[in-house]
Amino acid sequence: MSIQVRAVRKRFGAFTALDDVSVDVPTGGLTALLGPSGGGKSTLLRVIAGLETPDGGEVLIDGLPATHLPVRERDVGFVFQHYAAFKHLTVYRNVAFGLEIRRRPAGEIRDRVGELLRLVRLEQFADRLPAQLSGGQRQRMALARALAVEPRVLLLDEPFGALDAQVRKELREWLRRLHDEVRVTTVFVTHDQEEALEVADEIVVVNQGRVEQTGPPDELYDRPATEFVMRFLGPTTRLGDALVRPHDIDVRLDGVGVPGRVDRLSRVGFEVRAHVDCDGQQVMVTLDRTRAAALDLAPGRAVSLVATSIGDPARPGTTRPISAGTGASGAAEFHP
């Protein structure tokens, strides 16, 4: 089931949370709403869910008007960051709750809950209370509960935000696999760039109540439409007037390129980060260990830097510097 958001506006007093926002979510897709805190992404999700009413614009679900449709009639499942579990109910009863209030037959409830607990790998914890589960297990329970009523849309509001880094990584891999199995149209909110890039089919970058860019992860990373998108989706540095990614700079010893001198080196896992002083401009370059060793990099070493090109169809595998200009709208535009 598809979702269309058309020119939606939402204010809270003097604060504009959404300013003429339009988004298309394809049927069966996994779409991330990505952006900084306070940028409007959670408000947009709540408007889709029916938990907030927009001041203007419209929401279509499966092509039908849903702007003023009550939450219960939108057929959506909603998962919050902090689980919203019924503490006095077992895992089984938490997952069964939505089916019980819909007065589904006991046999149907038993089969559906058993199927979902197996799907989220919690069947052995069916009789436990939520307090007896880990954070990751409670979040899987919340997802099973949302899926129990077979919603046509699944909405997740920073579902892994309260978990530690390792559990978040495990759960986002699990969410991707789960989505590929159930194929329900899914929209999730996150401020974690790596999470969005790894999990989503499509990313909607939201900032200051507006959509900066929408597209597949590779397109947004390699061909950002604005300086904000480029900066938000990964590390950047400046080489001369060009804004580039540190891994898209080639370090040379033949004097070709922008001259500089290695200021310091740091090792982060497989990656070596070189901070190069180019006539007062600090440029960060990332290399793998093999390349850094071959160049015999060390503080004080004279080098030259060349930005290579990105997304050039005539030269596959190459990258080119992305520089900022000013478009007709006055916003920063990028020209590959």
From TrEMBL:
The protein's matches in InterPro entries, at most eight in alphabetical order, are given as:
AAA+_ATPase, ABC_SmlMolc_Importer, ABC_transporter-like_ATP-bd, ABC_transporter-like_CS, Mo/tungstate-bd_C_term_dom, P-loop_NTPase, Sulph_transpt1, Transp-assoc_OB_typ2
Instruction: From the Swiss-Prot or TrEMBL record, give the protein name.
Output: ABC-type quaternary amine transporter
Q: Name one GO molecular function term.
A: ATP hydrolysis activity
Q: Which residues form the ABC transporter domain?
A: 3-233
Q: Which organism is it from?
A: Actinokineospora fastidiosa
Q: What is its EC number?
A: 7.6.2.9
GO CC annotations, alphabetized: ATP-binding cassette (ABC) transporter complex
Database matches in Pfam families: ABC_tran, TOBE_2
Using the record, list the residue span of the signal peptide; answer none if the entry has no such feature. Answer: none
Top-rank lineage group of the source organism: Bacteria
Keywords of the record, alphabetical order, are: ATP-binding, Nucleotide-binding, Sulfate transport, Translocase, Transport
Question: Residues annotated as region Disordered?
Answer: 312-336
- Give the SMART domains listed for this entry: AAA
Question: What general EC class does the enzyme of this chain belong to?
Answer: translocase
